[in-house]
Amino acid sequence: MDTASLFENQVVVVTGGGRGIGAAYARMFAARGARVVVNDLNGDAARESAAAVGGVAVPGDASTEAGVEHLIRAARELAGPIDIYCANAGVARAGLIDIPEKAWELSWQVNVMAHVRASRALMPQWVLQGHGMFVSTVSAAGLLSIPGAAPYAVTKHAAFAYAEWLAMTYADAGLRVHAVCPQGVRTQMLEESGPAGKALMEESAIEADDVATALLAAILTGQFLVLPHPEVGAMYAGRATDPDRWLKGMRRQGKSLPTQWIPKVAPQDHPAHPPLVAPNSPL
Ligand SMILES: NC(=O)c1ccc[n+]([C@@H]2O[C@H](COP(=O)([O-])OP(=O)(O)OC[C@H]3O[C@@H](n4cnc5c(N)ncnc54)[C@H](O)[C@@H]3O)[C@@H](O)[C@H]2O)c1
Q1: Is the pLDDT of residue 89 over 50?
Q2: Is 25 helix (H, G, I), strand (E, B) or coil?
Q3: Which residue has the higher pLDDT, 110 or 259?
Q4: Does residue 141 carry a pLDDT above 70?
Q5: Less Cβ around it within 10 Å: N or C end of the chain?
Q6: pLDDT value of residue 259
Q7: Through-space distance between the first and last CA atoms of the chain, rounded to whole angstroms
Q8: Which atom of ligand 1 is found nearest the CA of 208?
Q9: pTM for this one?
Q10: Sequential DSSP letters for 95-112
């Protein structure tokens, strides 16, 4: 199928579009005729990515209420009514049981509330016009969890649940939702994930453009769940059918990582402060 003008005259907003997966989305949509609005916390990255696709940049925080309102207002002024919103900005915080409150809070705001706030601001327009598309960049960690990064695993599950909820609630009003759930993708996030993240994901890692291609394929077929690593589907099914077996596998995986996730000594031998916090993010 020729997709050259698939998004002709459509306005697409991509949060966290300054680099990585978001920048790949921007390229994919722009190459098919969309007017792309690139948001990123990093203003230079947003401007560079927007310029590369002939789009416009709206730098800023896409997670706060004020930031989302500003982004949506500016996108409408600069490019017109929004057809597609890619809630893509995300943060990966690693840690075990004593991970600080602020890492949980940041993960909750960026990985989840950003999606809630954007969809809340967009739905009135989308219901009125009878169509809209919400793309949620989740992660395979939102379907399968991930050792050593509790806030990431938990908030990505929440992002996935929210995408499902949006889809089941507003599909009849014309909303299309896509939940994109890759494993490792060669971006700065993976680069910064340290030896544990690399051990978990590097071997099967794909390029950011592969994620955008998988999203395009799902848009064409109308599929909600986007699996750039197709093997994730079988693992997700395995988890649902035999949770104990799946947990055993996850324990094995956690133990095999180069980072020491669990104190190697018995607690009575190490009463002072066992090394509960993993020094590296696995993603
Ligand atoms: N890289 C991977 O292996 C991988 C795998 C699965 C899912 N993901 C998800 O894909 C998405 C994109 O990740 P990436 O790998 O491209 O990461 P990245 O770190 O390379 O890029 C993320 C971009 O988001 C921006 N950003 C962060 N917080 C923001 C905020 N509050 N407002 C606006 N911009 C913000 C950053 O400045 C950065 O440019 C994330 O949601 C991530 O969780 C990544």
Answers
A1: yes
A2: helix
A3: 110
A4: yes
A5: N
A6: 64
A7: 35
A8: 16
A9: 0.93
A10: BSTT--HHHHHHHHIIII
